[in-house]
Specification:
The protein is mainly alpha-helical. It has a two-stranded antiparallel sheet with strand order 1-2. A hairpin with a 4-residue loop joins strand 1 and strand 2. Helix 2 packs antiparallel against helix 4, helix 6 packs antiparallel against helix 7 and helix 6 runs parallel beside helix 8. Bound molecules: fe (ii) ion (FE2) (2 copies).
Length: 330
């Protein structure tokens, strides 16, 4: 998802009986759905895992602005341009809430950004694919933001207060993003044969990477059980992926386009769609830094950070001047 394969540092779950009094009290609060707040006692591994998860999520929001941002100047109408600008700006806001939530755990935003720029921190694999046509903007909103909602709605109930509250606002905005994407796809599918072919081509290229967003199969997700015990992961990768497929296939039918999966079919017995095998080598390769756009995305972020240095310096100088003036007046 926007945070994939987050390392919890744990290799086996601990039972309540094996925990010290502080950890047991913590786990009992989590089990009772009482939120953990920044000043509360928490196990060090919980704090570190949350920093990894929330910062990966924040980086994904910020890097996720790039594939869509490069279509703002080429949007086909003024209305589409205004909508896309608002959407990309929302993603910047999501990044900011999430960096702020991570900071409550005792890490600085500068450090998190430095880790991203040094290639030490991950962000979602999905943002390492290129946006080749306008239809890709439709496919991203429909599929990528759609997958994000699927993952983030359960996270509104996660155990860490600042993260769960950030998710509530983020999800409201994501549902607007998903609908704007579907609206672009609908317009293309109702247009000329060429436009419909563009929509189909975008679906062909984004479908499998969207399914990979949910992360490796449950059997291979070593850290999931610990994250589930801490309630910072509510549903498993495979459960979320299945929900996403079940929700999205009827939407493609409505659009009159088809998923690029010959094995996709309704399974009445299971009450779910069956789907073909996912190329996990591709996911691991992209996560390792070898996707089509990994290098370009990082370079663009670093360049933006360097070119924005004067804005940060000016804001700091202004804040210092104001503080000095207020002190003088007092
Ligand atoms: Fe977002
Ligand atoms: Fe979004």
């Amino acid at each position: 998802m926007y945070a994939q394969m987050v390392d919890t540092g744990a290799n086996k779950l601990r039972a309540l009986e094996d925990m010290g009094p502080e950890e047991r009290a913590f786990q009992e609060r989590v089990d009772a759905d009482v939120k953990i707040e920044p000043k509360d006692w928490m196990p060090e591994a919980y704090r570190k895992t949350l920093i990894r998860q929330i910062s990966q999520h924040a980086h994904s929001e910020i890097v996720g602005m790039l594939p869509e941002g490069n279509w703002i100047t080429r949007a086909p109408s003024l209305k589409r341009k205004a909508i896309l600008m608002a959407k990309v700006q929302d993603e910047a806001g999501h990044g900011l809430y999430l960096y702020a939530a991570a900071e409550t755990l005792g890490v600085s935003r500068d450090q998190l950004v430095a880790d991203l720029h040094a290639g030490k921190a991950k962000y979602s694999s999905i943002f390492n694919y290129p946006t080749l046509t306008w239809a890709d903007i439709g496919a991203i909103g429909w599929l990528v933001d759609g997958a994000a909602i699927m993952n983030q709605i359960p996270l509104c109930r996660c155990s860490f207060g600042p993260y769960s509250r950030a998710m509530i606002r983020v999800c409201k905005e994501e549902s607007f993003h998903q609908r704007q994407g579907f609206d672009i796809m609908m317009t293309l599918c109702r247009g000329s044969a060429e436009q419909k072919a563009m929509a189909q081509d975008a679906l062909n290229r984004w479908w499998w990477p969207s399914l990979m967003m949910f992360g490796p199969p449950d059997a291979d997700s070593v850290h999931s059980a610990q994250s589930a015990q801490w309630k910072i992961k509510i549903l498993s990768n495979d459960e979320l992926r299945q929900r996403f497929v079940d929700q999205t296939v009827p939407q493609a039918d409505y659009l009159g386009i088809t998923m690029p999966d010959p094995e996709l079919k309704w399974n009445a017995e299971r009450g779910h769609y069956d789907f073909g095998p996912i190329d996990w080598d591709e996911l691991y390769n992209v996560v390792k830094g070898n996707g089509p756009c990994n290098r370009d995305r990082l370079q663009t972020r670093v360049k933006a950070w360097e070119e924005g240095a004067w804005v940060r310096e000016a804001a700091l100088a202004y804040a210092e001047k104001r503080a000095a003036r207020a002190q003088k007046a007092a």
